[in-house]
Amino acid sequence: MEWFDNFWSVYSNLVLTIGINALLALSIWLTLSCGLLAMANAAFMGIGAYTASLLTMNAGAPFPVALAGGIVAPTLVALLIGGPTLRLSGVYLAMATLGFGEVVRVLILNAESLTGGALGLNGIPQSTQWWHVVLALVLVLLILWRLRRSRIGRAFEAIKEDGIAASLMGIGVMAHKMLAFALGAAIAGLAGALNAHLTFFIGPSEFGFDRGVDILTMAILGGTAGLTGPVLGALIITLLPELLRAFKDFRTMMNGAILVLIVLFLPKGLWDPLRFKQWFARAPRKPDSMPGKAA
Amino acid sequence: MLKLTQLSKRFGGLSVLQDVNFEVPAGSVFGLIGPNGAGKTTVFNLITGLLAPSGGGIEFDGRSLVGVAPHQITRRGLGRTFQNIRIFKEMSLLENVVVGMHAHLGYGVPALLFALPGFRAQEQRARAKAHELLSWVGLDHKADDIADNLSYGDQRKLELARALATEPRLLLLDEPVAGMNSGEKVELMALVRKIAERGYTIFMIEHDMRFVMGLCQRIAVLNFGRIIAEGTPDEIKNNADVIEAYLGREDDDQAASGGRP
Question: Which of A84, A171, A268, B93 has the lowest tally of Cβ within 10 angstroms?
């Protein structure tokens, strides 16, 4: 197992970051599955990260308590801002939630006595073990998988397809949107809390616009049809800069380019069960047909 | 069962409905007809809570529906279909119908998370019921197809099955045969009759006179936002105001005998 020890000492951070990014991608997948383009997940991650870090550093709280705080705080904020913003739809909701994200960033930046301002928080105890991340990811996947197969998941999908028809099926549209939004915030907050206790340092710039776009890219790249997509997207987007080290300064640009290409050629993302089914249906008859065109 | 009193709706300065009064008796098939733009679909949108009335009252089984949220109205036993079909296109037929049972699946969050027996039993029952409703409308053999792939007529039938899944006591049908060919119309007429025989009260908006006259026990006629006549199909057929609304003022006797398009 020597090779594994060597591998782990070099890449443990990267592997755990994949897990945390998967959580973030799942958090935005949840709101997308309800037809909401909410871009506040980076801010919720930040709220979770700062809450958890302050709990461990200032209040000396044990790690589980800090994690709980990192989940609860963004959930409460989501319930508060969800009321007015979730009445918006489409791009207007995206704008409102982006604005909210900016407000959170500026608040963190200016509350210097508490958050350290632009310098960020230093010396967060590294309490996050590999199994914390695995456990969190497995639990979140399990909950979302169960949710998807229940009346709540069906209600989300119905709202995504046609909100008015959904309401006339007896579905409380606003309550379900709020549930998706708050649960997404809780998952993003959990990811933020885990990440803060992994990286030793957090600063306000980590939770800005770039991060929000990263999270969205992961979910869209992977595909939003199921739970596999966001995890796959997180894997690729996390590994890509490592594979493209030479282009490091252009990382954001690469992500933007990938998003554009995916939207153009694979509008449903990489993981699209329907497309796979089409391939299999077509394969025996025309083995060398262009699969890229199936989308 | 459903009672509209002095119902009116204005959009800004435009009066779409004025003092609409009528009552849909329980157990009947009731029709609302009228020329294009008379305000028929607005009546449905007011009843189902998608629009708020500017004045007047809507009572369902003696309880007011004014100011009640659409999903609550559905839960009180009012189901509807749409003139411009609004099925969930990316779902399978079965899923479409099961969505309609949303309010009747009573399991809680723990049952859902741990797939407890209660959850499984209810989900199974919902699926069985959905298959039954699909077979009522003759679509059960396509239960696992994606709804978007259905023909126009089949999409209307699916919408009907989905509306029935909400367990309505009163079913509102908004132009159920719009855009159908005559064969499909005959088929749907038999289907609606079958549904009425099962004890559902039906309230429909329809343009197709043969369809309305053949099915409805009572008919109300809406023109320019006002009810101009109400009665049995025979009374409506021979009502001078109705003939005038549909054909314009008559100057010769031929128009009277050609009262149906």
Answer: A84
B256 touches chain A (CB under 8 A): no
**What are the pLDDT digits (tens) for B174-185?**
999 888 888 888
Q: Which two tokens stand for residue A245?
A: 């080290």
Predicted pLDDT at A225: 87
Domains and CATH numbers, chain B: 1-77+168-261 (3.40.50.300), 86-167 (3.40.50.300)
Interchain contact A158–B (C-beta under 8 A):
yes
Provide the CA B145 distance to its chain's centre, in angstroms.
Answer: 25
Phi (first) and psi of residue B24, to 5 degrees: -95, 110
Tokens standing for B138?
């003759």
Assign residue A90 a region (left: φ > 0; alpha: ψ between -120 and 50; beta: otherwise): left
Measured CA to CA, the distance from residue A101 to residue A249 in angstroms comes to: 24
* Structure tokens belonging to residue A222: 């992977």
By the CB < 8 Å criterion, does B91 face chain A? Answer: yes
Distance from the Cα of B75 to chain A's closest Cα (Å) equals: 6
Which residues, 6 or more positions from A248, have their beta carbon under 8 angstroms from its beta carbon?
A: A241
On whether any CB of chain A is under 8 Å from the CB of B224, the answer is no
User: Are B2 and B20 within 8 A, CB to CB?
Assistant: no
pLDDT band at A295 (very low <50, low <70, confident <90, very high): very low
Parallel, antiparallel or unpaired: strands A121-122 and A201-202:
antiparallel
Residue B121, amino acid: A
How many pairs of residues across A and B have Cβ atoms under 8 Å apart? 80
How close, in Å, is residue B45 to chain A by CA atoms? 11
Q: How confident is the model at residue B38 (pLDDT cuts 50, 70, 90)?
A: confident
Give A289's pLDDT tier (boundaries 50, 70, 90). Answer: very low
Q: Contact, A186 vs A95, CB < 8 A?
A: no
Question: What domains can be seen in chain A, in order of their start residue?
Answer: 7-294 (1.10.3470)
**What distance in Å separates residue B82's CA from the closest CA in chain A?**
9
User: What's the pLDDT at B252?
Assistant: 53
**Do A184 and B113 touch, CB atoms closer than 8 A?**
no
Quick check: B102 and A164 CB within 8 A?
A: no
Q: What is the pTM of this model?
A: 0.89
